[in-house]
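Lab meeting notes turned into a lecture example. A postdoc, R.K., suggested we walk through two folding results consecutively so the class can see how the record format repeats. The first protein's sequence and structure tokens come next.
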Amino acid sequence: MRILVVHGKDDFLRLERVKRFIEQLEEEHGQVEIFTFDGGEASRAEILDELRSFGLLQQHKVVIIENAESFMAVEENRRAMEQYAEAALDQATLVLRAMTWRPGKFDKKLDGVGAVIKCDVPSNSEAMRWTIARASKRHEAQLDQDAAGLLVERIGPDLAKLDNEIAKLSSMSASRNESGQFIITRDQVVEMVGLSRQEQAWELQSILLRADPAASLSKLHELREISRVPDVLLIWSITDVLRKLHDAARMRAAGVSDQVVAKTLKLWGPARDAVLQVSRRHPPGRLGSLLSQAVQVDEASKTGRTANPVRSIETLTVTVADSLR
């Protein structure tokens, strides 16, 4: 393996794949020298010179090109790498690490001398399996499926964040299993890990349903600035509650019972009573108009058609809370 391409949107996986690969090289060659270049700034002459030069102690050399997509986007660089792949040196390994990758002639020349590894963001189920295995192998911790499921629900399938949370949970665990591993329980995840994206959304929705503009704006700022909730999730939260209100009011106007409305819209807990109560006070037309405004703000933020996205969300929040009085 003299050339390795590691690409994908998951930063943690890209780093981990290269780290493991270097560990394998160290097992085979002993100590290895590592040289890293920024693909957006380094010249092909610098990289090729490093690949072809010999160290005094003849150690194996790893040359890493970060942001390799920028480097390979230059036609002369790509052709130079294609030529190098045809006669890749044994004493060096070339690693190209990129977020995006366009397969081409270079990939075809890797047969027999290299490989391409894709590191996409995993699904929730894949992240759960990874989390359980990671806890055991890297953190000497036992994480059951229930706890892993809640952890992924609250963090999302971000492996770097999941790894950090496992490290934190294992360091704070006081109990061990028969194998000496720290035991991480679901209760510990509930206590130590932040709210899930759905729970964060409900924090804003619950105050909007109270029809309090000042409190709603304050909660919006708290979620954005302290909890670091993405704007796209905040807009979704507002749109989601308006959609439920509109559908509930429309169904009630058609004579549908509260029980059927709640079941159809999958309302339970505090959300059930709050949504039903507010939907009784407003006609479907008014709620539909608010929903249309939220959809427009969402579309404008995703397409870059708003000069001040934060102000748009703030205005929408105050408008909705005031209109629900």
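The second example is placed directly after the first for contrast:
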Amino acid sequence: MIKQIATILILGFPNFTCLAQQNFEKVDAWLHNNLHEIGGRGVIMVWREGKVVYSNAQNELNTREKMSMKWVAKKQGKEVNEALQDFNTLTQMPIASCSKWLSAALVMTFVQEGKLSLVDTLGKYLPIMTKNGNGAIQIKDCLSHLTGIKAPLLKEAITNQQEFKSMDDAVENISKMDMEGEPGKTFHYSNVGLQLVGAIIEKISGQSFESLFQQRIAKPCSMQHTTFGNKPVVMPAGGAVGNAEDYLRFLSMILNDGKFNENQILTKQSIEAMQHNYAHYVKVVYKPEEADLWGYGFGEWTMEEGVENVHSVSSPGLFGTFPWVDKDKKYAAIMLSYNFNFKGRHLRYLGLKKLVDESISTLNSIQKY
């Protein structure tokens, strides 16, 4: 039986209560109708004007989905019962490439403090990159997948990552990769850029990536259940674990020009830099199908192809989680799921966003009168 959960008091925002959800019937229906396309479990949350205006979780794993989750649990060394638990707004799970948005925000805190410049070259901090002929790549290239490095396939990259004993090992491995295009002019969506800049902020701070993330992003955003893990080699591009409530807090900060409650975490200038499309008029070697014609900023996709008039930004994850911020309609939302069904994923994203857009517009109209 499908279970629906409407969270009443969550997230720790001022006056954070859910409004009546009757304006989101079509979003309810979308979640019900697409539940088995997104893995049999899903959570959707929407934030607007300091409040959660919609929150719903539905769970109905079928036999095939249960078998799949049992296989995943076995591969990850987890208890089967844990893998089959119902999802809710607090369910903690790997968020894959949604991590990129968090990591880019972390790097921007160093930029706005003057400890790092977007036009600094990798060779300034990582001599081995210069030694192997790619030290001229800039920090901004790393944040926007424009390094020009011929990155390995994701499966190979993850396997390699597990073998490294230090961030220096990871950097050395990347430094030996071939170049496939000119830095700043060649787009290849991968893990390499954020891995390199992650190593740099560890070097200039003398702290681990996880410690920096907790101090500079997680704690000021009240993200108590989000972590990259206390590992010698973290994966800034895809290694975070978190939940829907935490990520919505982060999105609200992005929407609010870098401010969460009383904490100014990012400057408005940093937010604007992150949301510029740097992948326009460049050679595209690879981008995932679900990104379709989207552009790319720092750690996030611009949901329009052009450079001007970026209205919405997102950073979907491999396992189906889809967070986004709509700058025009002034709301943030996340759909959290866990599945490997890539077929039609892009259209599902757009379909869901359209329904949420409509619901928000209805709320705006009600408030006017």
